[in-house]
UniProtKB/TrEMBL annotation:
Its main location: membrane. GO terms for cellular component: plasma membrane. This is MotA/TolQ/ExbB proton channel. Residues 71-186 form the MotA/TolQ/ExbB proton channel domain. It is a multi-pass membrane protein. It holds the Pfam family MotA_ExbB. One of its GO terms (biological process) is protein import. It comes from Oceanithermus profundus (strain DSM 14977 / NBRC 100410 / VKM B-2274 / 506). Belongs to the exbB/tolQ family. The chain crosses the membrane at residues 6-26, 106-133, 153-174. It comes from the Bacteria. It is found in: Cell membrane; Membrane. InterPro entries: ExbB/TolQ_transport, MotA_ExbB_proton_chnl. Keywords: Cell membrane, Membrane, Protein transport, Transmembrane, Transmembrane helix, Transport.
Length: 206
């Protein structure tokens, strides 16, 4: 409680920011952990169904798979009757949509990692100004009084770094997870387009 009083409103704000950032991290962590990647089985079913011309079966397989990959494949497979170009456009649009959904909330962690040290520095500067004002008003300066005032001021800098470092680690961890999922989506996009190209090229020429 004493340290909270020393830090003033800046330390209170850092505490609230920490709680919010922690909530965002755990919510995003659990959400990304539930995402189904590794869609080899789904792609085998899609491959076989598309080659047989059974698009409905492929769509049902994507629905059953669910998750990001399932939604992504649904967007592309629904456009198969309109040609490869339409499928590619639908997959690119779906990729952007999934990227936005997966990365939701990561900006909070990034901003926290950048703002927390600045808030800590602001608290330090304002605390030192207050300390020197007290020294000036007393008309004398003692090493003990000066050291105590500066120590209290530097506490907010330490608090800012304590908040920023975990936030930065959390951001890069989740961003890496998002990149892994998006990389798989891009890989599956190339696979589906390749399957469709092979089917088209394998059709008898008119």
């Amino acid at each position: 409680m004493l340290q909270l009083q020393q830090g003033g409103w800046i330390l209170v704000f850092l505490l609230l920011l920490t709680l919010y950032a922690a909530y965002v991290f755990f919510e995003r962590y659990l959400a990304l952990r539930r995402e189904k990647i590794g869609g080899e089985r789904l792609m085998r079913e899609v491959d076989a169904s598309v080659r047989r011309g059974q698009i409905d079966v492929a769509l049902e397989a994507a629905r059953a798979h669910g998750g990001t990959l399932g939604r992504f494949m649904l967007a592309g497979l629904a456009r198969v009757p309109f040609g490869v170009t339409a499928v590619d456009a639908a997959l690119k649009a779906a990729l952007l949509e999934e990227e936005s959904r997966l990365a939701r909330g990561l900006g909070v962690l990034s901003v926290t990692a950048q703002v927390a040290p600045l808030l800590g520095l602001l608290g330090t500067v304002s605390g030192m100004i207050r300390a020197f004002n007290v020294l000036a008003s007393q008309g004398q300066t003692t090493a003990k009084l000066l050291a105590g005032g500066i120590g209290e001021a530097l506490f907010t800098t330490a608090a800012g770094l304590i908040v920023a470092i975990p936030a930065l680690i959390a951001y890069h961890y989740l961003a890496g997870r998002v990149d892994d999922i998006l990389s798989e989506l891009e890989q599956r996009r190339e696979e589906l387009l390749g399957i469709l190209a092979e089917v088209r090229n394998g059709e008898p020429q008119a």
